[in-house]
């Protein structure tokens, strides 16, 4: 057979064509990768750098002003990386909590019949959504640093907490061993509540009898630990910050960098969440509310038992991507000097050791795992609230 | 309000002169540095080139955005020629004085990055979305891998990669302009998000449309170009514009690797002892610029949605 004809036949046949295209694509992409990696190896050799993560064990010799675990400038780069990871997680988690609360409130306000509340929420959302998040962070940071007083003229809150532009100084709780008892009671309260809710629901289904679940749970989780706290004699003492020289010492401090990042990220993400919540609530047919009211269920329970469970199905998937965005945006911390992953391992460590490749690989992998973790958790939640169809 | 306008000082040589005049905001800092905010460090004698580029931009955008423009049938040709002409105008060479890209700055830099990103991320995003929906497993796996990787990491880390380690991957001796590296990263970043938006549109197209195109004897690219994509794109307009707005806002991140967009200029101005402590004024000014452009884009997308609405009104 003429080879030209058989080639064009191969191309005309759908199956063999798809194989050809894929083989070409694989060869092309792996070829490109191989080329890039070869270049990297040649380049690294030329300047005499190897590829190893050994530098992580060397002392970091820089300071991190906010650390959740023990850290000094003599700690290793690895330790600095852990501090960075914890700082990122701290701002991401607290940001997600605040943004969710604010976002849901704003979303409900946007649907309010009160014209003023509605319009104010609308203007706020439009402004925040159309301005870059980095600008919000710098603006909030600027306001905190420029308007709050210096430590010497600190705004005192009852002489135990102090508001300054170097941070918010709070009394630091020191836990005595007896405090473990309270912690134990608190945990027991939560376990009891989970069991009791199931038990009460079971009883209600069988007999129609209704227990005051909320009040009993509240008593079990907060009431009993609270009362026993005073019975044992208050096993927490507080270390109150005091002004020494130009700054406060002792106590606990929330740095302005953290506050600015936290507030700015939450405000920004809240505006997006508000629009998602609004769309979710609108998507629930008004007939559902009417039907529920017609059954004699009051307004609060209608919202809780009928509207919100249905709205959540629409809300959760886009909410997940907002959470992911917030976690990723927390990397902007570096602009105001909050020491997160990017600022520690991808910033100072990178500059000190000159190991760009290794540092950036660590940073990229850490963010990838954080993103995967959030979407994994939200997928589980999404499965739980999904419409169960027969 | 009082602070913004009534008590504000609009002229003055420094912060002290401002506060001597009025107790409110000090807008003089903006007036003094307006040129810097607009052009960055672009040489003063060559600024007409930036202005001309802006005129060309408006000339190119008009026939794309609005229907009743006389030269609309050439819109596509103009749009293809535009990037080359402006690149030549801004960078120079071939008869014009060359201008280094590290002199780009201010609003002009925002527009350069934003418009390049918007222009190139749409076609790449479409290809990635089609790749992800493709029946060929190899293509599909590569598309998914690329999209999920980019979406899993923050843009700032990609910019760091661009500024610190991209040179390692190039053949020895070859270096790349920093602005060009940033442009590539921003475009790739936006195209991954674009791909997901368009995939949503593609998934909303009923299977019958694909089958109908097949039974008409159209091959893959014609079917996509004539039947599937026009419908999918219409559905995804709000998402596409949101991605554009996100990209445009993300251009501010370049200050972290040392490029001076308006926000960067603002920060640099605050470092000047004459103007320290005026962060609120400077940042508000930049915020207004971004608000106007992004809000404009959002409004245009609403207008487009209404225009393309083919369903019956309920």
Give the structure's gist in a few sentences.
With 390 residues, chain A is of the alpha+beta class. Chain A is 68% helix and 7% strand.
Task: Give structural notes.
The complex is a heterodimer of chains A (390) and B (314). Chain A contains twelve helices and eight strands. Chain A is an alpha+beta fold. Among the domains of chain A are: 44 residues; 207 residues, MetI-like (MetI-like fold, Orthogonal Bundle), CATH 1.10.3720.10. In chain A, helix 10 packs antiparallel against helix 12. The mean pLDDT of chain A is 82. Chain B has a domain of 209 residues: MetI-like fold, CATH 1.10.3720. In chain B, helix 7 packs antiparallel against helix 13, helix 9 runs antiparallel to helix 10 and helix 11 crosses helix 12. Chain B is globular and about 80 Å long. The mean pLDDT of chain B is 82. The interface between A and B is large, with 50 and 47 residues.
The class by helix and strand makeup of chain B works out as mainly alpha
Would you list the SSEs of chain A in sequence order as H and E? Answer: HHHHHEEEEHHEEEEHHHHH
Stated plainly, the CATH topology of the domain at 100-308 in chain B is called MetI-like fold
Corresponding CATH architecture of the domain at 77-153 and 256-385 in chain A: Orthogonal Bundle
The percent of residues in helical segments of chain A reads 55-70%
Spell out the CATH superfamily of the domain at 77-153 and 256-385 in chain A: MetI-like
User: Major beta sheet of chain B, specifics?
Assistant: none
What's the total helix number of chain A? Answer: 12
Distance between the termini of chain B: 42 Å
The Rg value of chain A, from CA coordinates, equals: 28 Å
Gap from first CA to last CA of chain A: 59 Å
Helix content of chain B: over 70%
Total number of helical segments of chain B? 14
């Amino acid at each position: 057979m003429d080879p030209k004809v058989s080639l064009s036949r191969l191309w005309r046949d759908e199956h063999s064509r798809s194989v050809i295209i894929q083989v070409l694509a694989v060869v092309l992409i792996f070829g490109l990768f191989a080329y890039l990696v070869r270049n990297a190896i040649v380049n690294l050799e030329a300047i005499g750098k190897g590829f190893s993560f050994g530098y992580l064990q060397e002392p970091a010799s820089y300071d991190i002003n906010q650390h959740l675990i023990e850290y000094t400038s003599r700690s290793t780069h690895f330790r600095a990386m852990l501090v960075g990871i914890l700082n990122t997680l701290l701002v991401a988690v607290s940001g997600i909590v605040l943004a969710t609360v604010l976002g849901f409130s704003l979303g409900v306000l946007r649907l309010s019949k009160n014209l003023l509340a509605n319009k104010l929420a609308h203007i706020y959302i439009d402004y925040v959504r159309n301005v870059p998040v980095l600008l919000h962070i710098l603006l909030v940071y600027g306001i905190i640093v420029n308007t709050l007083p210096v430590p010497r003229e600190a705004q005192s809150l009852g002489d135990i907490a102090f508001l300054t532009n170097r941070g918010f100084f709070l009394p630091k709780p020191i836990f005595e061993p007896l405090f473990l008892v309270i912690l134990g009671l608190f945990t027991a309260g939560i376990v009891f509540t989970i069991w009791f809710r199931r038990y009460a629901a079971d009883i209600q289904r069988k007999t129609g009898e209704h227990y005051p679940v909320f009040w009993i749970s509240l008593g079990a989780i907060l009431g009993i630990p609270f009362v026993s706290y005073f019975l044992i004699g208050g096993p927490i003492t507080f270390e109150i910050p005091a002004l020494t020289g130009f700054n406060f010492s002792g106590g606990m401090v929330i740095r302005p960098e953290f506050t600015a990042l936290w507030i700015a990220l939450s405000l920004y993400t809240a505006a997006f969440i508000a629009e998602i919540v609004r769309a979710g609530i609108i998507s629930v047919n008004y007939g559902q509310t009417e039907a529920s009211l017609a059954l004699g269920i009051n307004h609060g329970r209608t919202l809780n038992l009928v509207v919100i469970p249905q709205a959540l199905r629409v809300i959760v998937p886009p909410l997940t991507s907002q959470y992911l965005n917030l976690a990723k945006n927390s990397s902007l911390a570096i602009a105001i000097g909050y020491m997160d992953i990017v600022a520690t391992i991808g910033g100072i460590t990178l500059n000190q050791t000159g190991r760009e490749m290794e540092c950036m690989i660590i940073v990229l992998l850490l963010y990838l795992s954080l993103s995967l973790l959030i979407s994994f958790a939200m997928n589980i939640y999404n499965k739980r609230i999904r419409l169960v169809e027969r | 309000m009082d602070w913004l306008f009534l008590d504000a000082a609009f002229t003055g040589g420094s912060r002290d002169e401002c506060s001597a005049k009025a107790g409110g905001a000090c807008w003089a800092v903006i007036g003094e540095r307006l040129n810097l905010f607009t052009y960055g460090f672009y040489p003063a004698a060559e600024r007409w080139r930036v202005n001309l580029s802006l005129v060309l931009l408006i000339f190119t955008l008009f026939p794309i955005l609005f229907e009743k423009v006389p030269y609309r049938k050439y819109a596509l040709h103009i749009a293809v020629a535009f990037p080359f002409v402006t690149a030549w105008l801004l960078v120079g060479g071939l008869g014009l004085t060359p201008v280094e890209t590290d002199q780009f700055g201010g609003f002009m830099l925002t527009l350069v990055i934003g418009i390049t990103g918007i222009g190139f991320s749409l076609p790449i995003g479409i290809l990635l979305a089609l790749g992800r929906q493709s029946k060929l497993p190899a293509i599909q796996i590569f598309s998914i891998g690329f999209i999920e990787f980019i979406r899993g990491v923050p843009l700032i880390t990609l910019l760091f990669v661009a500024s610190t380690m991209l040179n390692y991957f190039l053949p020895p001796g070859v270096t790349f302009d920093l602005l060009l590296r940033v442009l590539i990263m921003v475009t790739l970043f936006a195209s991954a998000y674009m791909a997901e938006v368009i995939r949503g549109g593609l998934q909303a197209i009923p299977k019958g449309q694909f089958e109908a195109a097949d039974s008409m004897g159209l091959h893959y690219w014609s079917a996509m170009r004539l039947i599937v994509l026009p419908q999918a794109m219409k559905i995804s307009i709000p998402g596409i514009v949101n991605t554009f707005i996100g990209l445009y806002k993300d251009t501010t991140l370049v200050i972290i690797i040392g490029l001076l967009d308006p926000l960067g200029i603002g920060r640099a101005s605050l470092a000047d002892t004459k103007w320290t402590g005026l962060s609120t004024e400077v940042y508000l000014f930049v915020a207004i610029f971004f608000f106007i452009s992004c809000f404009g884009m959002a409004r245009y997308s609403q207008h487009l949605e209404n225009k393309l609405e083919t369903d019956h009104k309920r």
